[in-house]
Amino acid sequence: MTATFTSILDLRSALEPHRAQKTIALVPTMGNLHQGHISLVKLAKQQADIVVVSIFVNPTQFGVGEDLDSYPRTLDADSKLLAVEGVDYIFAPTVEEMYPVMPPPTQVLAGEISQKFCGQSRPTHFDGVGIVVTKLFNIVQPDVAVFGKKDYQQLVIIKQIVRDLSYDIKLIGGPIIRAEDGLALSSRNQYLSENERTIAPLLNKHIRQLAASLRDEKINSQTQLQALIDNMKEAINQSGFRVDYLEVVNQDLTQINDFTDDKAWVILVAAWLGKARLLDNQEV
Ligand code: PAF
Question: What architecture (CATH level 2) is domain 3-174?
Fold first, then answer.
């Protein structure tokens, strides 16, 4: 039986009796659930006795002019999906419940890492993610928290927050779940027109090609790496996207300086296709 709470106090009261004997996993979401989220729920169930899924379209992580108002809100359908998965608790607070004062004067800033990549075009995005995830951790006090690797930068930032704020939480990164044609599942895919949906999988195809070149070719310098990136950017733009950024970095998101290593790198990409800003990544 899945119970839904909108109040922090009620959720805390429901979780309290479990704490002594059972482990608790949290899966934070903004709802409009798809199989990507469900895969995170399944991971959470393997990791802990009690699973809490939060559903909250967090206003503080949307910038001015972004899709906060149009972001799909589908609590009834989401609740049905989560009940089938045997989720114990859904936490679906209102904005007032999460943020008694809006915007919240208290901030959780992750520093330099939150200004790179997605942070360049969304400069306040990760500040909003920082405060909401911190609040969810404080409210649920989970033993385990599961996030998707599609939002690779988000996961690295949350790892940093857990380390720096001494949370005793095991973080799990769930693999990207893709449609058969390779498109990473995302709630924002529904902004794609029918024609754009046929183009969208090319983004993954392109970064897989880049990953293959990075594996196969001997790369000795940033200049050489940058030339491959620039060619691929051009190819992605030619396919009908507008690249926001395409970067190859170490898996902790630091710049690659050591070209002798065994290439534990990741390709990060964000590209616009019509109204949708698509994110993808590929470990090399
Ligand atoms: O990845 C998301 O859906 C959101 O950024 C998160 C982690 C639920 C915070 O609002």
Answer: 3-Layer(aba) Sandwich (3.40)
Residues 185, 39 contacting (CB under 8 angstroms): no
Catalytic residue among 34, 37, 125, 206: 37
Residues paired with 170 in a beta bridge: 144
Instruction: Determine whether domain 187-283 maps to CATH 3.30.420.280.
Output: no
Whole-number average pLDDT of the chain: 97
132 CA from centroid of ligand 1 (Å) = 8
pLDDT digits (tens, 9 = 90+) for 229-278: 999 999 999 999 999 999 999 999 999 998 876 778 999 999 999 999 99
Query: Of 171 and 257, which is predicted with more confidence?
Result: 171
Sketch the domain layout of the chain as residue ranges.
3-174, 187-283
Q: What is the pTM of this model?
A: 0.97
Residue 117 · residue 266 · CB < 8 Å: no
Q: Is 27 in the pocket of ligand 1 (CB under 6 A)?
A: no
Q: What is the pLDDT of residues 26-47, one digit of tens each?
A: 999 999 999 999 999 999 999 9
Written as six digits, the tokens of 150 are: 């599609």
Cβ-contact 147, 172 below 8 angstroms: yes
Respond yes or no: is residue 37 known to be catalytic.
Answer: yes
Closest listed residue to residue 14, CA positions, set 28, 26, 23, 4: 4
List Cβ<8 Å contacts ≥24 apart for 9-14: 11/52, 11/89, 11/91, 11/139, 11/140, 12/139, 14/89
- 274 alpha carbon to ligand 1 midpoint, in Å? 23
Residue nearest atom 1 in ligand 1 by C-alpha distance: 29
